[in-house]
C-alpha cells in the first residue's frame, strides 16, 4: 500500500517553500500507508533542471503542479532509485506516482526494452512513465501531432493490468496534471475563496476537448443546469483562483478543504488552466455520469496530535470517546434496543440467511475473531471468519443465501475488495463495516455500518479495533433482537457496553504502571508470547501484532489451550509471557496453567485481582 498526493494552485500566489511544505505535510498524513521511502516532484528554476539540492524556496508561482508519494516497498527494495516519483527518461519528460500493483509490468518492461528504453529501477511504476513517453513519441512521429494529456493517459491505462491510482506530470503539458484510478482510492479536494457554483461534475465524452478560455462567452440559456457542469469555470467564463488537492485519503485533504470529489474506477481527471474535467478510460453505460461534490465531516483537530507526542498515543487515549461515538444514536440502554440505519433495509434478509462469513485482514481480522462467539451465541447460525488474503486462494464456496461481512478501517484494503467482488459475483448479500465514508467497500456493498471512530493516522491500528468490535457487537445485537431465547444474554451484553467507557478509562490510568514494568523487566526482550482463551484469544493475537508493528520484536499470540500441544517447547526462563485473564468461564482453566517461570505478566480484571496476586507473588499482575 502506498500514498499519493498532489497540490495544484491556479491564479493563487504560492512560493516554493509553501508548495514543498504542503506536499510533505500531505505525505505525513498518508504515512500509515507506507513510510519506507518517499519523494516529491515540483517545477525547477531552469528548463534543464532535473535535480538540484540548492534551490530558491522564495520563488513565487501563480500556477504550479506538484506531486508526491510515500510507499511500502513491493517491487524493489527501499532505495533512492526505487522511490517515486518515477521518470520516463533522464530529462523527466513524464513523471508518475502510483499506488497499486501492475500485474503485467514484466511484459511491458520487456517490450519497452526492445524499443531501447533503459530502466533505472526495479519497480512496476517506471513502466508507466516510459509507456507514456512511448505513446507520445509514436503519435508525434506517425502523425506529426501530439495527443491531449488525458487521451495519452487513457492510452497508457488501457495497457495496464492490475490496480492503480496514478498522477501524471509532464514537461510537454506544463501546468497540467492527469489522475487515473482503477482499484485504488483517489479523491480530489477543491479549494476556492469563491463559493462553488456547482454541486455535481459531469463526466465528459472522449470527444470533448479542453475548453479554451476564448470560447467561454456567456449564453442566454446554458445547456447545463447551474448545479451541474463539466467544469469549474466561473460566471461569464472567468477562471476562478482555485486550488486542487489530490490524495489517496481524505485525511490529507481535510486541512485544506472539505469539498471533495471521489473518483470512480476507470475515471481520468484532467486539471488544466484551473479547470477540472473528468473522462472515462472505457465507456460504461451503467456507471453514473455525475460525480457529486461531497462535504467531509471530519474536523482538522482530529488529524492533529495535540498534546500527544505520537498519533498512536493520541488514538489510544481517544478510545473512551471513540467507543461512545460508535454507539451514539444506535444503542438505547433504557429499553435495550439497537438501531443501525445502514442495515435496516436488509435486516430481514440477514436474519433469513444460511450463514455469516466475515472477511478481513490484519487488525480487522482479529476484531472479527473477537466477536465470532458472540455471533454464534446470539444469532444461532454458522459463523465463519476468513482471511481476505487467502479467500480467493481457497475458492471458498459462497451461495446466494449467505451474508458476507467485509471489514476494513480504510475501506480500501485490496485483498478485502477482491474477496468482496468474489462474493458479489456469487450472489451473496454483502455488508461493509468501515471507518471511511465513501470508501470503495462502503460503495460496493449492499448495506453497511460506519464505525465512527474518527480518522486514524497511526500505522498501528488502536481505536479502530475497539470500534470495530463494538460495531460488530451491535450488528449481532440487532440481528438477535427478535429472538426470545437469547434476550437475557443480549441484555447482559448491553449492560456491559454501558460500563465500557469507564472500564477503558480505568485501564488507560495504568499507563505509567505498565511503562515502568516494561522498562524494568522487558527493555532488552527479543521475543514475547501472549496467552489467552475464549474471548481473549483474539486479544492475544492483536497484542502480538501490535508488539511486532511498534517494536519490531518477535511476538506470538497463542490460544492457551494449545500451549501443551507444541508451543510449550519455546518457553524457558528467558521467555517473557503475557497471560490475559478475565473473570469468565475460562478463568479457572487459566489459573491451572503451571508455568513455573518468573518472567510473566498476568492481566486480570478487578474481580480476579486478589486471587491472581496471591497465586503469582513473583510476577507482575495488572488489574483493570
Automatic annotation (TrEMBL):
Transmembrane segments: none annotated. One of its GO terms (molecular function) is carbohydrate derivative binding. Residues 343-485, 518-582 form the SIS domain. Keywords: Aminotransferase, Glutamine amidotransferase, Repeat, Transferase. Pathway: Nucleotide-sugar biosynthesis; UDP-N-acetyl-alpha-D-glucosamine biosynthesis; alpha-D-glucosamine 6-phosphate from D-fructose 6-phosphate: step 1/1. Gene3D superfamilies: Glucose-6-phosphate isomerase like protein, domain 1 (3.40.50.10490), Glutamine Phosphoribosylpyrophosphate, subunit 1, domain 1 (3.60.20.10). SUPFAM superfamilies: N-terminal nucleophile aminohydrolases (Ntn hydrolases), SIS domain. It holds the Pfam family GATase_6. Residues 2-274 form the Glutamine amidotransferase type-2 domain. Its EC number is 2.6.1.16. It is an enzyme of class 2 (transferase). InterPro entries: GATase_2_dom, GFAT_N, GlmS/AgaS_SIS, GlmS/FrlB_SIS, Ntn_hydrolases_N, SIS_dom, SIS_dom_sf. CDD domains: GFAT, SIS_GlmS_GlmD_1, SIS_GlmS_GlmD_2. It catalyses: D-fructose 6-phosphate + L-glutamine = D-glucosamine 6-phosphate + L-glutamate. It comes from the Eukaryota. One of its GO terms (biological process) is UDP-N-acetylglucosamine metabolic process. Involved in amino sugar synthesis (formation of chitin, supplies the amino sugars of asparagine-linked oligosaccharides of glycoproteins). PANTHER family: GLUCOSAMINE--FRUCTOSE-6-PHOSPHATE AMINOTRANSFERASE, ISOMERIZING, GLUTAMINE--FRUCTOSE-6-PHOSPHATE TRANSAMINASE (ISOMERIZING). This is glutamine--fructose-6-phosphate transaminase (isomerizing). It comes from Boothiomyces macroporosus. The gene is GFA1_1.
